[in-house]
Amino acid sequence: MGRWSREQYEKMIEAGIFPPDTRAELIDGEIFTMTPQKWTHAAAIRAAEEALRPAFGIGFDVRVQLPLALDPASEPEPDLSVVPGSWRDYRDAHPSSAVLIVEVSDTSLEYDRDRKGSLYARAGIADYWIVNLPAGRIEVYRDPGPSDEALYGWSYRTALFCAQGQHLSPLSASEYPIAVNAILP
Known about the structure:
By secondary structure, the protein is of the alpha+beta class. It has helices at residues 6-14, 39-56, 109-122, 180-183; strands at residues 24-27, 30-33, 60-64, 80-84, 100-105, 127-132, 137-146, 154-163, 167-168, 178-179. The strands form three sheets. It has a six-stranded mixed β-sheet with strand order 3-4-5-6-7-8, with helices on both faces. Strands 1-2 form a two-stranded antiparallel sheet. It has a two-stranded antiparallel ribbon with strand order 9-10. The protein is globular.
């Protein structure tokens, strides 16, 4: 199987190659389909969105399941991403980075930790959260750097695990603590 570029992937989307109800994303040249969401997954996305919007406010756009053009071969669709500016700044192209990415995991935990974690670290995303639904916690990954063991050659060197009853703050909105309970459904 060959690898796809972001340009080829976007042309496939424009040409209607994927059925309208297909959820897919391009990760390092490979197209992955995403599984349908359970209610807990959807509820956690909405909860995180509601918790993050006031933390960032004007000057940032909290995007839900929208593409990021991370590199020429990757266009993931994280559950949430926070990007500088407003949605108007991205009318002509997807953002190429984010100050925070949040993935909600129930059945996709290994994929989100290993594949997406390495991809986001390689892209220099400084703040990556995984809402780990089975464990009832939020995993916070920071300090991206090169790693020979990581799938795409990069990983996060710092991991924090925040349980219910605790608070965490995004790096780009450190003055705004968010209760873990506000995000977990």
